[in-house]
Design a protein that fits this description.
The chain is mainly α. The chain is 79% helix and 0% strand. It is built from 13 helices and no strands. The chain has helices at 7-16, 23-73, 78-130, 138-141, 145-155, 159-185, 187-195, 200-241, 247-260, 265-280, 282-307, 316-330, 332-352. Helix 2 (23-73) crosses helix 8 and helix 2 (23-73) crosses helix 13. The longest helix has 53 residues, at 78-130. The protein is globular, with a radius of gyration of 31 Å. The termini are far apart.
Amino acid sequence: MSEDDPGRPAQRENAGRRAPRWLRPAILSVLLAVAAYQLSGWLFHNLRGFLGLLFLAWLLSITLEPVVDWLERVGMRRGAATGLVLFSLLAFAIGFVAVFGTLLVEQLGQLLKALPDALTAVTEWANRVFDTNFSTGSDLLRLTPETVRELVQRFTPGVLGVVSSVVGVVFQAMTMLLFVFYMSAEGPAMRRTISSWFPARQQQVISTVWEISVEKAGGYVVSRLILGAVSAVGTGIFLMAIGVPYWLPLALWTGIVSQFVPTLGTYLAIALPAIIAAANQPIDGLWVVLFGTAYQQVENYVLHPRITSKTVSIHPAVAFGSVIVGASLFGAIGALVSVPVVAVLQALIETYGRRYELVVDPTGRTKPEPEPRDDEDG
């Protein structure tokens, strides 16, 4: 073909219109990113129960780590120390069930039966005193014989369902205990293994993050357990002293809800004992409210600062929002572990974050710049 061939300009023009070299790799990268996102979403949706169980096991393992470290320092092997701590916790749980299990089940069953009548009595008293017109009786809870029969049929499984539920709970408990044991017994080795995957400059960061997680999350759980135990014991003794029925389940309810339900837990914890006490004796309901208010002040100003001195302080709104997010992602387990996770994140932000001096005062006016200093006069 000669140079005057009219086809050559068209070929040159098509060659100039070829796609740039970066376009194909960019398209491939976008497709891989979309595929990875879809795959990770599918895995998270199908494995979120297991991931929540795994995270709960890690949280329990770092809660036990201070005790295991102390036993290791006094000469005990780490695996044996972890086994001893877990065995002690199981023995305590079995002993509690052996001593209070029958009483707890009996009082809990009586409490569930008496709760509608107690709510009715409190509602009738409120209608008389405050001249209100709230529904009472069966209309209060919208319970009829037909609805009760339907609920019983819906939520009472057969023999096979009971056996499968028990087996499932036992399997999950044994799985979590197994993970707790290995995460605690192999904690230092696991930390070294993870650190060895990163360069030397980043290993210090990993070590710091791990230490903060153990200190803040583990300290938060331990402090909540101690405060919950103190609250349950104090409430149980007071309820038993003034003759309030069902004192054991009400005390456990108060200790658990007041410490592990942020913001609203304090009010929910004392509301149920007050309703039950008021249904029995109206004056007892007032005494329960006064006791709950007084104990809350003691806890806020005496017990809480001393017990939680090594943990971070979380804003109530942040804690409440974290519980909602955790529950929506992982259910009950997510609601339980959400606040410790936020505590760890807040501690990491405080450690690696940077704050700047405000240039605007609270009134919105810009702060005046400092006057330049005259060295000759100074």
